[in-house]
Design a protein that fits this description.
With 203 residues, the protein is α+β, with helices and mostly antiparallel strands. The protein has seven helices and five strands, in the order αββαααβββααα. It has helices at residues 10-20, 44-50, 60-65, 69-80, 134-165, 169-183, 187-199, and strands at 28-34, 39-42, 89-95, 101-112, 118-127. The chain has a five-stranded antiparallel β-sheet with strand order 2-1-5-4-3. Strand 4 (101-112) and strand 5 form a beta hairpin. The longest helix is centred in the C-terminal third of the chain and has 32 residues, at 134-165. The N and C termini lie far apart (45 Å).
Length: 203
């Protein structure tokens, strides 16, 4: 990827290694999209997954062109809606330059600066079409729901703040991020505290 990329945090690297297994470099890759410059960046693994050399520069049009026709409209709407600070997870198909179909799982997270300002989105491509042994599938089934659940509760907390205070999704996320930093409490825990009153009927 670009030299501008920050080193992947160890906790994230360990999680991905647990999901896809160590020593299988074509199975997982990292990407990011920067809103200000409308620029995509991808790792060599994702470039090769699509059938391109690692130094190929991706664009929105290029990525959409490789989506399976039955998935393209849904994914185009998803891509164009992430600028409000939302995360997304998607299981869909891509078609590489040779015409081979790959089933992939994409999991994203917001990219922010030190002040919590939203810069873009980034995450992982996981190639589920590769042959995998039973143990790896079991790890995927047990680990990914936890990751997706964390993303969901953050989205719910954002929605609650947006409804209560009439703020945008980006502002709601910045409030959650700020509170997490001020209290030194994980963002997911802060989000759970926000949504808990609604869940138990306290409004």
């Amino acid at each position: 990827m670009s030299s501008e990329h920050e080193e992947i945090p160890r906790t994230e690297r360990v999680l991905v290694e647990r999901v896809v297994g160590v020593g299988d470099p074509l199975l997982v890759g990292r990407f990011r999209y920067l809103f200000g410059t409308r620029r995509w960046e991808w790792s060599g693994e994702i470039a090769r997954l699509h059938g391109y050399p690692p130094d190929t520069v991706p664009t929105t049009e290029l990525l959409l062109a490789h989506k399976h026709p039955d998935d393209r409209d849904r994914l185009e709407a998803m891509i164009t809606s992430v600028e409000d600070g939302g995360t997304f997870s998607s299981r869909h198909r891509i078609i590489d330059t040779r015409g081979a179909v790959h089933e992939v799982l994409v999991v994203s997270e917001p990219l922010t600066d030190e002040d919590g300002t939203l810069l873009g989105t980034g995450g992982y491509y996981i190639d589920l079409s590769e042959a995998a042994d039973k143990d790896r599938r079991e790890v995927i089934d047990s680990t990914l729901p936890q990751l997706l659940e964390a993303r969901m509760v953050i989205e719910q907390a954002k929605g609650a703040l947006m409804l209560a205070y009439g703020v945008s999704a980006e502002q709601a996320f910045r409030v959650l991020r700020w509170r997490s930093q001020e209290t030194n409490i994980k963002l997911r825990v802060i989000a759970e505290l926000v949504v808990a009153p609604a869940a138990d009927g306290r409004g």
